[in-house]
Every structure is written in C-alpha cells, then in structure tokens.
UniProtKB/TrEMBL annotation:
Pfam families, per database record: DinB_2
Coiled-coil region(s): none
Name of the protein described by the UniProt record: DUF664 domain-containing protein
InterPro entries hit by this protein: DinB-like, DinB/YfiT-like
Highest taxon of the lineage: Bacteria
Limits of the DinB-like domain: 36-190
Amino acid sequence: MKKLLFPLAIVLFFGFTKNPGTQLDPKDKEWIMKHLTESREHMKQVLDGLSDEQLDYKPDPTSWSIAENVEHLALTEKMFIESVHKSVADGPNPSLKDSLVFQDDQIMPMVADRSQKVKTSEPFEPSGQYGSTEEALAALLAIRQELMEYVETTEDDLRNRYAQLPFGTVDAAQLIVFIAGHMERHVLQMEEVIEDEDFPQM
C-alpha cells in the first residue's frame, strides 16, 4: 500500500502546485493595473464635455490638438500591445535581467516628463485615420481594455520577458507601465492645450 501512496503523493504535489516564478506576482499586477487605470481615467476626465471646436484647437500651427493626441494614442497603443505579445511569444530570457535600464519607480515619471520633447515617427503621426475623435477614442479605449484584461488574467511571467525600446531594455511588466506613462504624457499635453489663453470657451 505504501508503494502506491508514494507515487500518488508525487502526482498530487506536482499536479496542484505551480512552478515558482512562472506567474506575474500579485504586487506587480497591482502596480501595473494602478497605472493603466489611473492614466485612462485621467484622460477620460480631461476629454469629458469638450466640444469639437475645443478638441480641434491648436495653440500654434506646430502643436497637436487634443483630437490629434487622441488619434496618436490610439495608433501607438495598438503598436505597444503588439510589442507586449511579441515579448511573451519570444519566451523567457533570464540573461537580459541585468540589462534593465530603469527601476520600476522611474518608468512613469520618465515617460510622462513633458520637459523632454520627443518627435514621433511618421506612422504614428495623426492624420485623421479614424474619421472622428469619437472613433479614435473608442478604438483607444478598446485597446486599453484588452490590455487590462490581459494583465488581469495572464499566467505569463512578465518579469522574465523583455523588449528593446530606444533607450534600452525593459521587462514586459515595465513595458506595460511605459504604455500607461505614454498615455499620461499625452493627457498632460492635452491639459497644456486647455490652459492656452486662447482656448475656446464653452
């Protein structure tokens, strides 16, 4: 009987326990979801009640309007989520762990910092691809919802998946917070438009 019980115990142990380090840590998940949620809600708050005239207003010919910022976010967020899925599909690469260029708490402030201006590449320049701001916003919110649902349900070890950004290596958890920071950066840009002295009043 003992001979039968020992292999059964082995099966039960390995059948009902998960290998350590193969899932996203709950604290990491909470950290990611906090920034994804807060950046989305900040954007919705800024956009709430704006007229077409206000959405299309530009402080000067070289600036983006609020509507153009929304379109840019829709275009880039789609690309970013593809990068997340690619990093997962590429599989774990522990050798890159020492190549990370930022601590977690540096990601949001660094990306959202409006004192450093960065010109986007041509594919992500707003050009009216969505037809209207409402359509661009709907697409953006759908993409963000997809990403948030992925984070909530994934069993992928995002700390052991990596992506290369222009400034260096990030893990997939940091990449997702980078996405949140990128949205926050452009929401701050929208607020700068609203604060312009010639911004149309209701």
